[in-house]
Design brief:
2 copies of one chain form a homodimer. Chain A is mainly alpha-helical. Chain A has one domain: Winged helix-like DNA-binding domain superfamily/Winged helix DNA-binding domain (Arc Repressor Mutant, subunit A, Orthogonal Bundle), CATH 1.10.10.10. The first copy, chain A, has 6 helices and 2 strands; from the N terminus they run ααααββαα. In chain A, strand 1 and strand 2 form a beta hairpin. In chain A, helix 1 packs across helix 5 and helix 5 crosses helix 6. Chain A is globular, with a radius of gyration of 18 Å. The first copy, chain A, starts with a helix and ends in a 22-residue tail after the last helix. Chains A and B meet through helix 1, helix 5 and helix 6 of A and helix 1, helix 5 and helix 6 of B. Chain A binds a DNA duplex through helix 3, helix 4 and strand 2.
Chain lengths: 160, 160
DNA sequence: TAACAGTAGACAACCTCGTTGTCCTTGTCC
DNA sequence: GGACAAGGACAACGAGGTTGTCTACTGTTA
């Protein structure tokens, strides 16, 4: 097949995009409008223990200001609550609300469904193999999202 | 291994990013500073026949204004020339300059080298298999980049 | 205990890449 | 000719980041 290196990159990108676009669309259908991957990962990070803006920034490899902006959105939509920390007046403690847990659960289900779809097309063993290979190549630091802008996607059409 | 669907997405993203980041860094080392994937793909599209801004926009699934901006950069750096079309006064004909061809060639080499590195780590057959699987999943419309913002990446550190 | 360095958060300005919306010029087709 | 489409330029704006600066609080240290 002799694909080129650039094609390989494109392949990876396309895979990611098709997964994420589908997930976002499905979530929108379920009523969680305009929910971005960034939000999902922020929620995850908060659950995992990032209970302040600065902390979230560190964990998601982003400036604390950027994290604060994300948090502002999540709070405004009711996915996260932010109350002053009684023990440290500088901080505001972040907590994921029940609604936040809902959207996270739904998101998980959506991704699972998408993965299952791929599994049907490729076979269980083959998909597992693909994942294992990718993990080998990428190393195990997949957790770091580390890519400002990676979630930007504003599907629109020009001049209908 | 039982990875989740979201992890799969992350895996794909990480793969893409690690490839592209490395490629950009290497190109910068070779003297093509601040060359973005967008530029690479714009050049490719122009070579492939997109000889006007609107045309480029259509081919790269981006508004003609965005395409025009990209072109402005490419022209300013000497990678693309833009002359009025004698046959149609509305158009400006785009052409990739020798310098543009250079950078494209270099880019190709860099990606090839990166792919070879992965090949060494995974084995020739296994990488081919991975590519084939991805191609199956993604379909054959990989050509469409179709992701505004997908190339945004501004590596920076907060407060050293 | 008083000074001081570091952390949290807020605000403002700015960048990049993309988007609309609008306008003008030029071709094309009936 | 006249309606309409297409190409391009300009301006305004939005999303998601960044830096820089400022204030309030904490914990440590002399």
């Amino acid at each position: 097949m002799a694909r080129s290196g650039a094609d390989l990159a494109l392949l990876l990108l396309s895979g990611f995009r098709s997964l994420v676009d589908a997930a976002m669309a499905e979530l929108a259908d379920r009523g969680y409008d305009d929910f971005r991957p960034t939000h999902e990962f922020a929620l995850r990070a908060i659950i995992a223990g990032a209970d302040s803006a600065s902390d979230l920034g560190r964990r998601t490899a982003v400036s604390k200001q950027a994290a604060a902006k994300t948090i502002a959105v999540l709070v405004q939509r009711g996915y996260v609550s932010s109350e002053p920390d009684p023990a440290d007046a500088r901080r505001k403690r972040l907590e994921v609300t029940p609604l936040g847990l809902d959207v996270l659960r739904e998101g998980e289900a959506v991704f699972e469904e998408l993965r299952a779809r791929w599994e049907r097309r490729l076979g269980v063993a083959e998909l597992a193999r693909l994942e294992a290979d990718l993990a080998t190549l990428v190393g195990d630091d997949v957790v770091r999202v580390d890519a400002p802008g990676w979630a930007a996607h504003h599907p629109t059409e020009e001049a209908p």
